Amino acid sequence: MSEPEAELDFELAKQQLTEFSARGGALVSGVADVDDFAAAPEGFRPQDLLPGAKRVFVVGGSPPRAGDWVSPKHEHQETMGTSDRINSLGLKAAKFIEASFGYYALFVPPGVNKGNQPFLSVALAAELAGCASPSLAGPLLHPKHGMLYYSAIVTTCPLPIDGRAEPACPAPACLDMWEAEGTTPCMKVCPIDDGGCLGGDIVEGRFANRRYNTARCATRVHTHWVPGFQKGLEAALDEEDPEKRKMILYSSFFTRTLWSMTYASQSQAQCYECMRVCPVGAEERTLR
Amino acid sequence: MSFFFVEPEIYKKYKDEVIALSDSVQVNFQEHLPPEKRRRGHSDREIAEKLGLDERTVREIRVVAERDTYDLEEWEKAIEFKDKACRAFARHGISYVFKYRDELK
Known about the structure:
The complex is a heterodimer of chains A (288) and B (105).
Chain A: H1 10-23, E1 26-33, H2 46-49, E2 55-61, H3 66-70, H4 74-79, H5 83-101, E3 105-107, E4 112-113, E5 117-118, H6 122-128, E6 149-155, H7 172-181, H8 185-189, E7 198-203, E8 206-213, H9 214-221, H10 226-238, H11 242-249, H12 252-263, H13 273-276
Antiparallel strand pairs in A: 1-2, 2-6, 3-6, 4-5, 7-8
Helix pairs in contact in A: 1-5, 10-11, 10-12
Chain B: H1 8-21, E1 25-27, H2 44-51, H3 55-68, H4 72-92, H5 96-99
Helix pairs in contact in B: 1-3, 2-3
């Protein structure tokens, strides 16, 4: 590791990093100040991962294709995870920072740390870096691209900081729907009081009183992944009849779950229904 | 047993409190408020301090409780929900949430 050059032009460095990321496929990128992560619990801040951390660089992109969104088979997107592409770019950006600028750069692993929790909230990092803004449904929304995947790199390089993005949620169409029906597209598809995951209000043009059923969302987002595997295995272990146990272990549910786990090198979202109906970014998902 | 796990009695005693305090129940966390003003869930360490338990015990209680909330039937419902919603969107586009609500039933 070379000594950081005292005369490094940080504005230029950020420009080079932004261009490098765009060439690699990033649709958006930004820089957050580590001091803004004070709201995160201790143990989930950038400084907990990298001593001396000053910034978090975030890249976003690799959303599902328009064709993926209109397929009538929900199993298609369950199997077509594209988040790994942005993580590949994040790792390259970390290498670029270290090789080009001489500062430490730590790629935040996309997997989970102990306790089934992330090393760092990449969503919070992306928000603080101005890449996108929170939504009632949960995923961050970019005003043009809608839902994107994000990757975060913690660095000691004091790159110039970006401000936070303007809210993209609720969209004008959602405000109209709220006035007419008292709900929004995401809440109508997945209503928390009717077997779904999402609830909330629109107050003075902003979403408020948000409710989110994390546990039910897990059954939909990770139907055929680690949670589904654990539930299926539990059912098999509880079954005393060996013939019935075989039916469980060889079943379509259990088999598909095992295949999904082997396809994915990392956590793979398996429910997109709240985002499928989101007006933000819908133009980019609508083709001929 | 060669790895750490909590006794079922301890789990049953504390699971509701742990889940209620944790990030598993999100209320107002993602509103358009400055991060320092959001009501985030407590970390395992913070819950441990509140309940007088150690952090590792809280972590194990939370992780088990998150998976224990719904039985396997909810996974079947998830498949049915996604199938209907996805097919309705494919037929009608985004308008299905406005005009074709019955197809979700």
